[in-house]
Amino acid sequence: MRHHPISPVTEPMQYRAIGVVRGIYVPADPAQLTRGMIRTADGSEIEAVVLGRLLTLMKRHLNLEEPHLWVVYPRSREEAGLHLQMVGVWEPSTLADAEASDQIPEGDDYLSIRGELIYTRPETGDLVIKVRQMPRPDGSRPVPFKLQLKGDVPLEHLRHFVDLNVRRQGELLQVEACEVVGPVAQRGNRGGKKRPPAAGGARSATKTARPSR
């Protein structure tokens, strides 16, 4: 098992949107765990779905009446606010080593967002990041998605690739730190740089949910 639920960055312009949220998972239907919500200590109830092998892990190893540190992919939905795709759980004390810590250095509700800044309005603290995803196994490319965040990023950084440290506050994603990596080459630009690597898919992230043998 790795020492952190979020893998290190391997490329300067590597897209991703992944983080951890602590809370109790409440399925919409106790007989079907795939859809429900995460109820957090601050009283938020965030819509969520369970992906990949995490479902088997939840059934076999986790007490769902207790809070856990879930590994999630965040998504923004205009009609329903924040939505989370649950791909893992960070709980070494249960899955690997009873003496290991279930905390991470960044603390609970931390997210790493890396992508292209396509909208920013410093006076209101609104910004939007475009995140590209890796091709599917069949070779098709998923449509890039947009994340709505809160933070103060100057207008001159529009169309730049940014690396953001983000904290969930209720159903808002608040930027705590921003590093501008560089400009993103736009389509149609002659001699432009290659498109940055896409974000990793659920296949790699679900490895965080596998118990050690």
Helix and strand arrangement:
Blueprint: E1 16-29, E2 32-39, E3 45-50, H1 54-61, E4 68-77, E5 81-89, H2 92-95, E6 110-121, E7 126-131, E8 145-150, E9 160-169, E10 172-183, H3 202-205
Parallel strand pairs: 3-5
Antiparallel strand pairs: 1-2, 1-4, 1-6, 2-3, 4-5, 6-7, 6-9, 7-8, 9-10
Descriptors for this entry?
about 210 residues, mainly beta, five-stranded mixed β-barrel, 10 strands, about 10% helix, globular
Biggest sheet, strands in spatial order?
1-2-3-5-4
Number of strands: 10
What is the percentage of strand-forming residues?
Answer: 35-45%
Gyration radius over CA: 18 Å
Principal-axes geometry comes out as: globular
Largest sheet: 5 strands, mixed, barrel
* Secondary-structure element series: EEEHEEHEEEEEH
User: What structural class is derived from the secondary structure elements?
Assistant: mainly beta
Share of helix, binned? under 10%
Count of alpha/pi helices: 3
Average pLDDT, rounded to a whole number, is 87
Termini distance? Answer: 10 Å
Uncertain stretches of 5 or more adjacent residues: 201-213
